Amino acid sequence: MPALEPEILVIMAALATMVVAAALTSGVLRVLLVAQALYWAMSYVARPAVLLTVLPDPHFGDNVADPRLAALGYDVAIGEVLRPVAFGLSVYALLVLGYALWSRRNRTPRVAVLAGDPDLTATLGVLYVLGTMARLAAAATGAAGGAGEVQSASPILSLLTMPATLGAVGLIVFYRSAKPVNTALLLGILMLGELWWTTTIQSKTPVLGAALAIAVRFALTGWSRGKIAGIGAVSIAGIAGFDWLQSLKSTPYLRAQAELIDSAYPEPVRPFLGLLRRFDLLEAATDAYYTGPSTWLSPGEVVGHLARSMIPGQLLAEPKLQSGTAWATEVRGASVDMSQISVSLAEGNVNEGYVIGGTAGVVVGVAFTAVVLVCWSRSLYSRHLPAVMFGIALIEVPVVFERGMLGSAETLGKYLQVVVLAWLTHLVVVEWRRYRQRTTTTGTAVPVSVGSKGSE
Asked: Which residues cross the membrane (predicted)?
């Protein structure tokens, strides 16, 4: 294997620093930092390492072997493309390390107040049932869509499937039962449901979100050797079986074509190519390199788009910016012919910041991600339902892993509507439980405290 580029070594050092920062913290933040390091390692270390080792010729249908990198020479191009990434991740690693050291000196025990709360559990159950019905309807009518699609065949059905995400991830994190068998059974059902939805929409997000939710659950309830072994087994099984799951939806012709493309890679790498292709931030870094620094949006335009992202589209006179789609047409379109392709792409915080504001934009982009990460980790300990629901939503949609400022704001704005729906569902559930308790007593009303702490 050829020597790794210096930029890759800097990235590896930054990711190792993030793991050290995770070790200095505790609870949810530790899990999120480790997950972030693993996610970026797949995009910025594993994928470049495969390219430098194999030096594959670009072929249609193979997005690992980028023709733009091959044209410049992988050894030269990867170093140039990853230079802003190495700088940005180094700044990010120092930021999170500084916060970890500060929080270690000012550490106060945190408790997930709503863990096991019967009202929250019932609300999440209702959301999951409603969302699953929408998922089944979307799959039956062919409106489920897929990863990277600009718009769904049925936007209403697409919106209605989102409560299933909140319900599944929320129950994985917050459900508590005195009987371990009940917990194991529910978690198994929820994981299988997310696995099915992953294959239906051909996206890694649902199953990775469910795996992250299990890790967050363990962060709240405490780790043990059995739990670590369990989540390791689930992760390995998911990675090893990802290609097989995707092949269930492919035709024999497409499978044969994929095998032909994969034959250019060494045998040990082939089982992981399907998963590796979905960690595509190296492509976004290549887009940014070819576009250049400070060439996309002005700072004023960015601020305006961030503000509009939190306003429902029905109240705006013009459509909101879809940053993933704009990146595909305006940024990637500068070096790749995207005229016949309609897709939404992940841009990454460093790459977005680079094309918006150069070095300063990279610093602002990674700082924004750090703030979102810390707020996210704290929201899951909140006693307020909206904050908890936003925290649950971010477990499923990996904005701090593969999106920048604009994509993160879009996601938060989109889930704002779902959180409102969850809050209304919560009110109905609370009133229904009060009514049931009153009718089951001997005529004496029994008060039910909203947001009471359940069994831990």
From this structure: 6-25, 37-55, 81-102, 122-144, 156-174, 181-199, 205-223, 228-245, 354-376, 388-406, 412-430
